[in-house]
Amino acid sequence: MSEPLRCREPATGTVQIDDENIRVTRWDFNPGAETGWHRHGWLYVVVPIHDGTLLVELANGETMTAELKAGVSYTRVAGVEHNVVNGGTGFLSFVETELKSLAG
Protein backbone atom coordinates (compact mmCIF):
# COMPACT_ATOMS: atom_id res chain seq x y z
CA MET A 1 0.00 0.00 0.00
CA SER A 2 1.41 3.39 -0.95
CA GLU A 3 1.52 6.46 1.23
CA PRO A 4 -1.47 8.81 0.77
CA LEU A 5 -0.90 11.92 -1.31
CA ARG A 6 0.03 14.91 0.82
CA CYS A 7 -0.51 18.44 -0.39
CA ARG A 8 1.10 21.30 1.49
CA GLU A 9 1.40 24.95 0.64
CA PRO A 10 4.79 25.66 -0.96
CA ALA A 11 7.24 27.90 0.85
CA THR A 12 8.45 30.89 -1.16
CA GLY A 13 12.11 30.84 -2.16
CA THR A 14 13.50 34.16 -3.39
CA VAL A 15 17.00 34.04 -4.88
CA GLN A 16 18.86 37.19 -3.81
CA ILE A 17 22.33 36.42 -5.21
CA ASP A 18 23.43 33.76 -7.67
CA ASP A 19 26.95 34.06 -9.06
CA GLU A 20 29.94 31.79 -9.67
CA ASN A 21 30.73 31.51 -5.93
CA ILE A 22 27.48 31.58 -3.96
CA ARG A 23 23.71 31.34 -4.15
CA VAL A 24 21.71 33.17 -1.46
CA THR A 25 18.02 32.34 -1.13
CA ARG A 26 15.50 33.70 1.35
CA TRP A 27 12.83 31.16 2.31
CA ASP A 28 9.46 32.28 3.71
CA PHE A 29 7.05 29.73 5.22
CA ASN A 30 3.49 30.01 6.42
CA PRO A 31 2.67 27.42 9.10
CA GLY A 32 2.74 23.98 7.46
CA ALA A 33 4.40 25.19 4.22
CA GLU A 34 7.22 23.13 2.70
CA THR A 35 10.20 23.57 0.39
CA GLY A 36 9.50 20.36 -1.51
CA TRP A 37 11.97 17.49 -1.87
CA HIS A 38 15.46 18.60 -2.87
CA ARG A 39 19.17 17.91 -2.51
CA HIS A 40 21.88 20.58 -2.19
CA GLY A 41 24.89 20.31 -4.47
CA TRP A 42 27.04 22.46 -2.19
CA LEU A 43 27.74 22.96 1.49
CA TYR A 44 25.31 25.57 2.84
CA VAL A 45 24.72 27.89 5.78
CA VAL A 46 21.28 28.81 7.13
CA VAL A 47 20.59 32.02 9.10
CA PRO A 48 17.10 32.08 10.68
CA ILE A 49 15.26 35.39 10.60
CA HIS A 50 12.53 34.20 13.01
CA ASP A 51 12.43 31.73 15.87
CA GLY A 52 10.55 28.60 14.90
CA THR A 53 10.41 24.85 14.46
CA LEU A 54 11.37 22.98 11.32
CA LEU A 55 10.20 19.49 10.52
CA VAL A 56 12.77 17.85 8.25
CA GLU A 57 11.61 14.81 6.28
CA LEU A 58 14.34 12.47 5.02
CA ALA A 59 14.26 10.13 2.02
CA ASN A 60 14.45 7.01 4.21
CA GLY A 61 11.12 7.95 5.86
CA GLU A 62 12.67 9.34 9.03
CA THR A 63 11.87 12.81 10.32
CA MET A 64 13.62 15.18 12.67
CA THR A 65 12.83 18.56 14.17
CA ALA A 66 15.10 21.55 14.51
CA GLU A 67 14.47 24.54 16.76
CA LEU A 68 15.53 27.77 15.08
CA LYS A 69 16.61 30.92 16.90
CA ALA A 70 16.69 34.20 15.00
CA GLY A 71 20.27 35.07 14.04
CA VAL A 72 21.78 31.73 15.18
CA SER A 73 23.35 30.14 12.09
CA TYR A 74 23.96 26.49 11.29
CA THR A 75 25.57 24.62 8.41
CA ARG A 76 24.89 21.38 6.55
CA VAL A 77 26.86 19.31 4.06
CA ALA A 78 25.72 18.71 0.50
CA GLY A 79 23.98 15.62 -0.79
CA VAL A 80 21.20 14.74 1.68
CA GLU A 81 17.76 14.53 0.06
CA HIS A 82 15.17 16.22 2.28
CA ASN A 83 11.96 18.24 2.54
CA VAL A 84 11.75 21.14 5.00
CA VAL A 85 8.37 21.99 6.59
CA ASN A 86 7.41 24.81 8.97
CA GLY A 87 6.40 22.62 11.90
CA GLY A 88 5.35 25.55 14.07
CA THR A 89 2.26 27.71 14.34
CA GLY A 90 3.79 31.02 13.22
CA PHE A 91 5.38 32.49 10.10
CA LEU A 92 9.02 31.45 9.60
CA SER A 93 11.87 32.74 7.41
CA PHE A 94 15.53 31.97 6.92
CA VAL A 95 18.32 32.90 4.54
CA GLU A 96 20.25 30.02 2.99
CA THR A 97 23.72 30.55 1.48
CA GLU A 98 25.13 27.78 -0.71
CA LEU A 99 28.91 27.88 -1.16
CA LYS A 100 29.52 26.89 -4.78
CA SER A 101 33.29 27.12 -4.58
CA LEU A 102 33.29 24.51 -1.77
CA ALA A 103 31.66 21.48 -3.37
CA GLY A 104 30.14 19.01 -0.92
Task: Give a verbal description of the structure.
This is Cupin domain-containing protein. It comes from Paeniroseomonas aquatica. This protein is mostly beta strands and 104 residues long. It has one domain: Jelly Rolls, CATH 2.60.120. Helices cover 0% and strands 53% of the residues. The chain has no helices and eight strands. It has strands at 12-18, 22-29, 42-48, 52-58, 63-68, 74-76, 82-86, 92-103. Strands 1-2-8-3-6 form a five-stranded antiparallel sheet, with no helix packed on it. β1 and β2 (22-29) form a beta hairpin.
Round the mean pLDDT to the nearest integer and report it. Answer: 92
Helix content: under 10%
Class by helix and strand content? mainly beta
* CATH topology-level fold name: Jelly Rolls
CATH class, named Mainly Beta
Number of domains: 1
Order of SSEs: EEEEEEEE
User: What fraction of residues sit in β-strands?
Assistant: over 45%
| Spans where pLDDT lies below 50 across 5 or more residues | none
Main sheet specs:
5 strands, antiparallel
Widest sheet: strand ordering: 1-2-8-3-6
What is the count of helical runs? 0
Number of strands: 8
The assigned CATH architecture is Sandwich
Whole-number radius of gyration?
14 Å
Termini Cα gap = 36 Å
CATH homologous superfamily name? Jelly Rolls
Domain Cupin type-2: 26-93
Pfam family, one: Cupin_2
Protein name: Cupin domain-containing protein
